[in-house]
Specification:
alpha+beta, three-stranded antiparallel beta sheet
Length: 176
């Protein structure tokens, strides 16, 4: 096994609401020292909402970065010092208007480890019910979401036809 690269210095070159970018000076095992840019992210949760084992809830949402309306599963970033399970329950309520009675971790994966440290933690959420009237969890200001409950087989067929272009959604549907 080769030696591990060592960070010599780091500066933040961009700081945004959801992530920041560090430029690290890294000494590589081959003796070279190179600058590497890394997107730093608190992490996120991806939900597979299932009103029952045969159905799943997908959302339709406009994604400005790609200028398209897409099918996807609900997801969102962790808040500071928030557990992933708590974030999953919160995002479920914010994005589909339902509170889960059960939050089951399905796995955790790095979608783009070549330049980003975001870990996506996947959860099945079930036992869905309406939130209390005074719940503080509402959709984010930048979200315009429509929910669709459908048989899980139909959701998987959307992936097979190429109608789901969101990788986290395509992968998450393989976990159920």
């Amino acid at each position: 096994m080769k030696n591990t690269p060592a960070r010599r210095s780091s500066i933040t070159v961009f700081k945004g609401r959801v992530f920041h970018v560090d430029r690290d000076l890294v000494a590589l095992p081959n003796g070279r020292t190179v600058p590497l840019d890394v997107v730093r992210h608190r992490g996120s949760v991806v939900l597979v909402p299932q009103p029952d084992r045969q159905h799943v809830i997908l959302i339709r949402q406009y994604r400005y970065a790609i200028r398209k309306w897409i099918w996807e599963l609900p997801a969102g970033s962790l808040d500071a010092k928030e557990s992933a399970a708590h974030a999953a329950a919160r995002e479920c309520e914010e994005e589909i208007g339902q509170v889960p009675a059960r939050v089951e971790r399905l796995g955790a994966f790095y979608p783009t480890p070549g330049y980003c440290d975001e870990e996506m933690i996947f959860f099945r959420v079930s036992g869905l019910h309406a939130p209390p009237a005074d719940s503080p969890h509402k959709p984010d200001a930048d979200e315009d979401i429509t929910t669709f409950a459908m048989p899980a087989a139909d959701a998987k067929a959307l992936v097979a036809r190429g109608d789901v272009i969101d990788l986290k959604t395509a992968y998450a549907l393989t976990l159920i």
